[in-house]
Write a structure and sequence with these properties.
The chain is mainly α. Among the domains are: 80 residues, Orthogonal Bundle (434 Repressor (Amino-terminal Domain)), CATH 1.10.260; 73 residues, Serine Threonine Protein Phosphatase 5, Tetratricopeptide repeat; 61 residues.
Length: 425
């Protein structure tokens, strides 16, 4: 019966959770050279009741165990809840001959925004992979599908796994590293992104530039350009002109490589349309930094991009979102009129919010929340009560805090601003 099957699965999950918890507690005892009694004291438990019946500990036990191991709390949770090692096996037994079909179908499903199917096909491709390079390629495809679906942490996990596989062809290793740099930037870690992207670009100078290596260069230039751009302060930006010029040069190189790939014989394998469409908007912010006298013209151009009419395809939406970020940064740097600046920031925030809601892109959601938090603080300072958090914004806050680790540094501030649901007491 179905209920018996569900009960059996639940029992298996509980047994696996208990086993994982016992593993971590044994590791903590070894790491700290503790007795069972000392471990129990550190975890706030009785020696005979270290493992709950369900196997799934409450948050206080997870936090105490993380402290005992010197692990991040999320690492403990991940170890406890990850599926058994055979959970990713598919019922259909694919062979190595099926790899190319599954890989290409995964890419096609992602373009069609069927992300769940794209992930499933990529996992099957990984199971069918008969070489380390194919394993890395399958993980890269899975990471792309997770990113598009808004699962940033899963995307990073896949890419970290890919770059650790021994024997991967160097151009594929560089592509996975470049994608990892981009994802780390999206998660609010520009310093890490800058280091990885720079290393990729340095190493690629020694390699022949076939299509995979070209894609790696384009992604690395894109990631490094953003890491440099994001490191430029909003105030007193004049000393940072050289950095802006370097960032702009990176975006120009990325655009040229993507254009070359699009014109090549394997153009169907190039999935960088969004990058190509967005670079001009990103460059405008850097134009204003390199030539401050052009700031007013840049703001007009960015407003025009944000207000462009057209289809609802993701490429256009992301172009507008990047333009909104550039618009907000340029307005903060160069607009002196407070009312005009406030209006521009409202436009930028609304654009970012709309795209984040439509695509679950947590990088843009984070940028929107930062702008909106600034607005709310000013309203509170003017003795105007900020509007309560609605259900959509609750999703954005939860998603950002879950998928963008950098946002967790300010989690208490976010919760103070967004803690009350609309209609609550």
């Amino acid at each position: 019966m179905l209920t018996d099957e569900i009960g059996g699965l639940e029992a298996a999950r509980e047994a696996l959770a208990r086993e994982r918890l016992e593993e971590l507690q044994a590791l903590a005892r070894t790491y700290r050279s503790w007795s069972v009694k000392e471990l129990a004291h550190a975890l706030g438990r009785q020696p005979g009741r270290l493992i709950p019946e369900s196997g799934m500990p409450k948050i206080d036990l997870v936090v105490a165990l993380a402290k005992a191991l010197d692990w991040p709390v999320e690492a403990v949770v991940e170890h406890l809840v990850k599926p058994a090692s055979d959970a990713r096996r598919t019922i259909v037994q694919d062979s190595a001959a099926d790899f190319a079909r599954l890989y290409n179908e995964s890419l096609a499903k992602r373009v069609k925004r069927d992300f769940a199917e794209a992930v499933r096909l990529a996992v099957r491709a990984g199971a069918a992979a008969d070489t380390p390079t194919r394993q890395a390629a399958a993980l890269s495809a899975e990471a792309a599908a997770h990113e598009a679906a808004g699962c940033f942490t899963e995307s990073v996990r896949c890419l970290r796994h890919a770059v650790l596989i021994d024997g991967v062809a160097i151009e594929w290793r560089m592509l996975c590293d470049a994608k990892l740099a981009n994802m780390l930037f999206m998660q609010g870690q520009p310093a890490h992104a800058l280091g990885i992207a720079s290393s990729v670009l340095e190493y690629l100078e020694t390699l022949p530039l076939h299509d995979v290596a070209k894609s790696a260069r384009a992604m690395a230039y894109w990631a490094r350009g953003h890491a440099l751009r994001a490191s430029i302060p909003l105030g007193n930006c004049e000393p940072w002109t050289a950095l802006a010029q370097n960032a702009r040069a990176d975006f120009v190189r990325a655009r040229d490589i993507v254009g070359d790939l699009a014109d090549g014989p394997n153009a169907t394998d190039c999935h960088y349309g969004t990058m190509a469409a967005s670079i001009d908007a990103v460059q405008l912010e850097l134009d204003a930094l390199c030539a401050p006298e052009s700031a007013e013209q840049v703001i007009r151009a960015l407003v025009a991009i944000v207000r462009e009419e057209g289809t609802l395809e993701p490429t256009l939406g992301e172009r507008k979102a990047w333009a909104a970020i550039a618009l907000a940064n340029t307005a903060k740097r160069f607009l002196e009129d407070e009312m005009q600046r406030r209006g521009i920031l409202e436009i930028a925030s609304a654009t970012l919010r709309a795209h984040a809601i439509a695509t679950s892109n947590w990088y843009f959601a984070h940028q929107h929340l930062e702008l909106d938090a600034e607005r709310r603080r000013k309203l509170a300072g003017n003795a105007v009560a900020p509007r309560a958090l609605d259900a959509i914004e609750a999703k954005l806050v939860a998603g950002v805090l879950g998928q963008v680790p950098a946002a967790r540094l300010h989690a208490s501030a976010f919760m103070a601003l967004y803690g009350q649901m609309e209609g609550s007491c």
